[in-house]
Every structure is written in C-alpha cells, then in structure tokens.
Amino acid sequence: MAKMEVKSSLLDNMIGVGDMVLLEPLNEETFIDNLKKRFDHSEIYTYIGSVVISVNPYRSLPIYSPEKVEDYRNRNFYELSPHIFALSDEAYRSLRDQDKDQCILITGESGAGKTEASKLVMSYVAAVCGKGAEVNQVKEQLLQSNPVLEAFGNAKTVRNDNSSRFGKYMDIEFDFKGDPLGGVISNYLLEKSRVVKQPRGERNFHVFYQLLSGASEELLHKLKLEQDFSRYNYLSLDSAKVNGVDDAANFRTVRNAMQIVGFSDHEAESVLEVVATVLKLGNIEFKPESRVNGLDESKIKDKNELKEICELTSIDQLVLERAFSFRTVEAKQEKVSTTLNVAQAYYARDALAKNLYSRLFSWLVNRINESIKAQTKVRKKVMGVLDIYGFEIFEDNSFEQFIINYCNEKLQQIFIELTLKEEQEEYIREDIEWTHIDYFNNAIICDLIENNTNGILAMLDEECLRPGTVTDETFLEKLNQVCATHQHFESRMSKCSRFLNDTTLPHSCFRIQHYAGKVLYQVEGFVDKNNDLLYRDLSQAMWKAGHALIKSLFPEGNPAKVNLKRPPTAGSQFKASVATLMKNLQTKNPNYIRCIKPNDKKAAHIFNESLVCHQIRYLGLLENVRVRRAGYAFRQAYEPCLERYKMLCKQTWPHWKGPARSGVEILFNELEIPMEEYSFGRSKIFIRNPRTLFQLEDLRKQRLEDLATLIQKIYRGWKCRTHFLLMKKSQVVIAAWYRRYAQQKRYQQIKSSALVIQSYIRGWKARKILRELKHQKRCKEAATTIAAYWHGTQVRREYRKFFRANAGKKIYEFTLQRIVQKYFLDMKNKMPSLSPIDKNWPSRPYLFLDSTHKELKRIFHLWRCKKYRDQFTDQRKLVYEEKLEASELFKDKKALYPSSVGQPFQGAYLEISKNPKYKKLKDAIEEKIIIAEVVNKINRANGKSTSRIFLLTNNNLLLADQKSGQIKSEVPLVDVTKVSMSSQNDGFFAVHLKEGSEAASKGDFLFSSDHLIEMATKLYRTTLSQTKQKLNIEISDEFLVQFRQDKVCVKFIQGNQKNGSVPTCKRRNNRLLEVAVP
Ligand SMILES: Nc1ncnc2c1ncn2[C@@H]1O[C@H](COP(=O)(O)OP(=O)(O)O)[C@@H](O)[C@H]1O
Ligand SMILES: [Mg+2]
Known about the structure:
Structural class: alpha+beta
Bound molecules: adenosine-5'-diphosphate, magnesium ion
Shape: elongated
Strand order of the largest sheet: 23-22-21-20-26-25-24-27
Number of strands: 31
Helix content: 40-55%
Radius of gyration: 80 Å
C-alpha cells in the first residue's frame, strides 16, 4: 500500500485569509478587517505573497519555542500558517541550496517590532544552521553584538521603550554548507541630537543610565561620576526610569556581551570614559563677559567639571578652555580668531558632545565588525538583515524625518522594482504571457529629493556651501524656485498658486507627497543639521588628548593633515550611504517583513483601526497586494495542486498515473472553470482570481466531507461487521465455557450435599450401634459385679468362723517374722567395722526391737573383742594381763599411772647374766629373775638415797650393791605384807615386812623407782601366784613405816619446787619423813 502523505497547507484552518492576495474583495476595509480578525486570534503574521506582515502583539506569544523552530524547519513557505520563521527558513534555504544571496528588509514605524523581528530572524537562522564549537562562537558573537549596539544606539521614546535610534544593516556571511562565518554591520544616521536634548517623556541613550546605575562605586569614582541622574544636564529627568527595565542588570549584560564580542578590558574602559566625558560636558556652563571692544565673550562658570574632564581625557585644560572661548577660521593661509559668545559656546559644547558620542558609536560598530568579520577568504554567501527606521510623520518634522523618509522612499522603490522584477521573471520562467501591471512608481519622488542638479538634497548642499549669509529661509526660497512645479512638492511660497491659500501649510514649511502620505517639513535647522559643524579648535583640542580612543575619533584635528576642504554634509553622506545600500540590496534576493503597530499605548490586545489604516497606507501594502495580484493572484506547482484537488474529479481520484500537469488540466476541464481564470505555466498553475481558488477550496471541502462520510460509512460497516463477528465467536466460546462452568458447579454442589447427607446417616447409625454396644457391655458388667458380690458374700459367710479362730495370730506371726527377717537382713548390710573401739551402731528401726537391738550390739561387740583377742600370743597375753592387773590396781588411784600405760613392762632392766660384774650375784640366784632394776633406797636415818639393784624372783625379793653386786638383803615374798605409795606422781614406795621376821629386823624398806607401777604390779602378781594371798597395796599420801623400833610417818607434800622435777626426801624428826613432790 502506498504511503499516504498528508500535506498541510496555508489554506487549512485559516483565520480570515492567511495571504492577503486571497482577499476578496480587496479594499482597505477588508484588508484591515482581515488583519484585525487575525490579530484578535493571536495570528500576528499575514502574508502578501512572500511578504510577511507582522502586527506587534505587545506581549510574548508562545510561537518562538524551539519546537516551533523545528516545525518550520525545511517546510515549504505556504505549508504552515504564516510566520516569520517561514520567511527566515525560505531565505536561509535558498541561500544554502540555491546559492542566492538574501536580504531581509524590515520596515515599519517606530515601535512596530522591527528590531524584535530582526532578532527573531537571526535567532532562527542561528538555530537551524550548522553546529560546532567554532560555528557556535561565531553565532554567539553575532547575537551578542545586539546588546552592545542597543545600549549605545537605543533609547526610550514615547513610541517605544527600546527604540533604535540608528539604522542598522547587518550582513551575515555563510560558507557553502550554510555555516555562519561572520558578519558585517553598517549603521546609518544615529540620532545624535538626543545626546544633548530629549523630547518630553523620552530618555537619552540607554548606556548613560546603565552606567550610572550599574557601575560599581569604584568604577564610578574612577570615571569621576555620581550615581544621581539629576546631577547631569544631559539626562532629562522626567522619565529616567523605564518600567520593567533594570538598567543595572542590563549594564552587566552589556559588559558581558562586550567581552564575548571581543572587547579587551582596556577598550571597554576607554569606551566608558568617553561616555563619562560626554555626560560631564553637559555640565559645563558659560556666563557672559563683556570686553572693552564691545565683543561678546563667554567664560566657563565652574572650572571644576572642566578640570575633571581634562583629567579623564588627558587633555591640557588650557587648550580645551580656549577651544570653548575662541573660534579660528582659516582661509587661504590666514588664521582669524574670533571670540565665542555664550550661545556659541553652548552650541560648541553640544556639537562636541554629539560628535564625540556619534563617533564613539561608529567606532563601536567598526570594532564589532573587526571581531565578527569572517576569518576565511573563501567565497561567502550573504544574508543581509536591514532594520531601519520606518516612515515618520510627526507634528514637527525636521531634517531627520526628511532623511528617514527619503530612505523609505528608496526602499519602496527597490521593493517595487524587485517585486515586479521577480514577478516578471517568474512569468517568463513559467512561459506565461506578461500582462501590464498598473501601479504607482515612486521613482519621481526619489528624483525630487536626490536629483543631483535640482534635487532637494543638492539644493541644501548648495545653500550650505554658498558664501554669504545662509539661513533656512534662503534655502526654502531656493526650493520654492526650483521645485515649485514638481507634482509632489508643495509650498505656500511657491510660484504655483495652488497652495497660496492653503492654511494647513505654514510659511516656514514645505510639504512632500510621499508615496505613503503627505509630510510637512519645518525648514528650521535644515542648514545647521546638514552642516553638522564642529569648530576646528575643538577637534584639534580633542586630537591632542592623551586618551588614545578620543584622539583616534578626531583624526581631522591633526594639524599636519589640515584639510581646508569642507567635510561632506550630513545629507550627502546619507545619500551616498543609501545609494551603496541600495546597490547592495539590488544584488540580493529580497524578503520583506512589514511591521505594523496596532496601537500607540504599547498595549496588548488593542487594535486601533485608524492607526493601522494609516500605516497600511504609507507602507503601501494595498499597492503591494495589487502588484502581486496584477497578473495572477495565486500560483501553485502542479504536484501539490493535483494532490490537493484530485478528489474533485473521477479520473484523478484516487490516483493519477500520468504527469501532474495533464492531471490538473483534466481536473480544471472537468470542473468547468472558465479558461480566462487560469493559465498553465511550466511548473505551476496560475489562478487569476482568488474567487476561483476559494471555489476550488469550497468544492474540496465539500468533497472531503463526502469522502469522509464515505470512508466513515465503509469504515463503520467494516468495524461493525468485524465487531459482530468477533462478538459471535466470543459468544460461542463464552457460552461453552459458561456451560462447562455451570455443570461443574452443579456437580460439585450435588456431590457435597450427598457427602453431607451420607455423613449424617453414617454418624447416626454409628451412634445407634455404639449405644447398643454400650448397653450390652453395661449389662455384662452388671451381671459380673452382681455375681462377684454374691460369691463374695457366700465365701465370706462360709469362712467367717475359720477366719476368726486362727487367721489373726497367723497373720501377726507371719508379719512379725517378715519384719524380723527384714531387720536382720538389713543389719547384715549395715554392720560396723571389726575394730573394738568403733562405737558406730545402726539405728533401731522398730521400738519393739529395742532390747534385741541393744543385745545384738553387745554380742557383736563381745564377739569382735574376742576375735581381736584371739590374735594375741601367750607372751603378749601375759603382758596384757600384767597391764590389766596394773590398771586394776592403780587406775584412777595413782597419778603416776597414766604415764606408765605406754611403757612396756620389761622386768629385767639389768642384764645380770651378761654383765661379768654381777657373776657372783647371778650364781647366787638359782631362780628365774622377774625384775632386775636399779632403785634408790631411802636411808632410814636421814632420808638420803643409795642405789641398789632390786631383784625379784619367784620366791624372794633381793637387794644388791650396785657396784659390787653383793647381796645386801634377801626377803622371802611371804614376809612382804604390804606396799605403800602416795597417790601422786612420784616413784616412792614402801615395802612393809612381816613383823618379827628375820628380814624385818632393820625395818621396812622405802624406795624410789622410775618403774614403780611395773614393780608393784609384778610384786603383787608374783606374791599372789606364790603365796596365794593378795598383797595389800595401800595408796595414801600419808602412811606409816616401821624403821627398827620407830614408826615413822611418810608424808607427801606438794609444791616444793626447789629441786626441779625430782621429788626430794627429808627426815624431819623421828616420826616424820617428808617427801616433796613437784
Ligand atoms: N513579535 C513580538 N512579540 C512580542 N512583543 C513584541 C514583538 N515585536 C515587538 N514587540 C514589543 O514591541 C516593542 C518594540 O519593538 P521594537 O522591535 O523595538 O520596535 P522597532 O524596532 O520597530 O522600533 C518591543 O520592545 C517588544 O516589547
Ligand atoms: Mg528598533
């Protein structure tokens, strides 16, 4: 399927008509109505063919966004609604693709939006042309030149807050690819009178205000300025501030732009110094001073300002002061100095200020050009943008308006020329017969002004150069003479009597019928302004300045280059530059933007019809449409034409196979359009009347509606059918699924219900069976229980007697037996150790076993003692018997006893048989010796002791000398009756002998021995075994002994400590022997 491309067109969705050429009927009223209608719908752009009319909206519209740029990029001119971008795109593309230099001519009165339009064109071109670091820098410099020039060349006027007070033409240069290379700016006629005086409600150039409010303290100080505007005579006070304009911020923007454009810091500063100098010049004031010779003279009132100016500019103060007071006229090697009166001095001051400023401005333009000029020498393509003041008609029109209007005449001229030329060329190109076009050619007016011999400008120059008194009046007279017969010149004084009674025409004026209307010029000031006189003394003073920039601005001040020829007048300068401009423009393809100002209030949404009407007239827009429509109102290439209207004919719809041209021919034939209404060119169809085009459009619209209906019908049918089929198919599917789902659901319901019922029934059945089983079980249990009870009763009844007789005792016995058995078994396990001294014994379990338990303990103890004893030998038994005997005898009776328990009883301490000394002694004793020991025998007479061997045998007790072994006494045991001793801890003992026995003749013996206990015990035992009598042993601390005939009392006293631990014995008297025991 072929891709259907929908081409849009200017003709789509038009508000009014987008192209005035299509206006039907065409007259001023319909023209304005159309503009107004579009303006009210925010459509500020309207075409006249390829000319763009722009109505200033005085508000920002959302139609300049980057998206819009993209919309208009590479689109045909008539494809989208009218826009300045369409024109810019067309111009840029034909420059790039067809190698045609372009110029964009923007005209309109002050405040109509020319400068804005030029900026829009530049920004559009900048947006669509090549990119890259270098290119961007060029673009940036080109765009940034605007703020600089606007600061110095724009001012607030009653018509426009940012009115350009100079004409500007800028050539932007491109390479073959369409990338920008650089640019050249030309400036025309800066309105320099504004520097020294501004009309009411207007301001001086922006830069003065920007400098004063935006510069830092430091900078101001350096420039010797003060921030207060009112300090400066050149700044009118009534509108120093402009609404919505921040001068300080703009100052920074300008400084920044200067930097981007390439001004060095020093240059920028120099420029500001010149600005400051101009401001300060305004503050120099003069007072009259009369001299003797009657000549008027002036004097500077306050020299302080002058001094500061001189410091700023490095000019010798005297030189400048003199230049303000004298004027030197040089004529043929003669120098004549005349003094200046106050008026002349002021004139000189203002002339200097104006010149200084306007020359600074030209310098700025040149400086910018230097920065932005193309760096390469390759062939360039050029797009010129002309932003020049439009036609001006004020109440008081002077030289400036005359010049400006002249310029506009020239532009109109070139417009007509180029438009017609273009039109004619197209006709030739398209091979269409040329029809004569009737239009007004303003060449005649141009001639009135610029004719070299009798043109007004030539006349003015002539007057200025003429010797003798020259005034504006003489100039007017001259005009009246020369131009009186000219159709477009009107003057009261002219010889032609036509205007003699015309009171609207004052005597000091002349009137010119410009193509755009009649303008009345006040002749006053023409000569002066044309002369633009600056006294040579001043330019020379300036040239002497140390300030390099100022010096360079006044080259004619150099005395070495004194040129006696007058400089060219302002008029001739302007004429020359306009001529160059025109020549320049003629080589280029023109593109027009005609700006219209909708109201005088700078307000949005107000459309003042009379004001617009006036502008339409002097811009010659109707003229413009007529020229454009002179032959054919509308033309279009065959392809788009066929594309647009092919639906109007069966043969061309929907596809035309042949060449487009024959398609269009068939189409037009079919539609029966009268032959004179159109013409076939080579590539375009030309339509004579807009009516025909609209007819076509109407037909197309209707046909489109029909087609739309048809398409709609078919589409709807198709849509409905497919929809229906889809629905049907879907319905079957849904139904199937639904049925299945419903069945499933029903089945599940039945199933679950069945399960519920089933479970209930089963439950019920089970419970019933359970109840029955439980019942049966209880029945059985009951029977068993009853039977058991019954049997129990029976048995108990049977055995009750038997039980009562025996059972209790038996059970008791059995129980007791069991307890005792358990007791003994327990005891067996808990037996204590076999040691006789072990006191442990298990506790008793039952009270009734108490005696048994004790008895058992006793038996066990006896038994283990016996066991212990059984281990002993006979000898050991003897020892223990002796020890036992000793214990019975002395325990708890004699204090010495405990110390003897540990000593073994040895008996024979002296080894009589082994010692040869005692051989005799041994031989004398036949019996077994039981004791052989050395004892101390106490002397009966004095209580002193002597050692004796004490021997005990089975039958005798013997005493022998310890040294000789000779037996001293022998006592048979039967004669021993008693042994006495104290209860104390001493070894004294007395052996009492039987009275009357042989041994007793000397009396009883008193001994002391270390082994008292052993000796006494053995003596006792031996006596007992031999005599079968118990030896009497007396233990007392006082006892009597028989010494010969005397009975002596032996008394034991305690506590004598004199002889240490040894007891001492002393005979007190016949009856008392004292033993001191420690
Ligand atoms: N296209 C526009 N869109 C919005 N405002 C505009 C437009 N054109 C002009 N203006 C407004 O009108 C004012 C005057 O325009 P300007 O271009 O300086 O006029 P001119 O150069 O013709 O004297 C601008 O400052 C701006 O506020
Ligand atoms: Mg402007």
